[in-house]
Amino acid sequence: MKNMNLTPQATHHIIQELTHTTTQATSDEWKATGLKVRPDTWKRAKRYAADHEMKLQNLVDEAFRYYLNQTN
């Protein structure tokens, strides 16, 4: 059985360093979701996106892609 421990692991990377490891979507389609996120995590993500002049949805998408690429 696959280990389903989804505890986040600390890394020392920033999203810009990881963009070369992710594939860009071939279309502009997005899936609307209703995710629940801890308030402090959401605040940090919003601040990071604003500081790096990127959309929050792109930050979340890149973070998901990076995490999934590392675990598979």
Automatic annotation (TrEMBL):
It comes from the Bacteria. This is Protein L-Myc-1b.
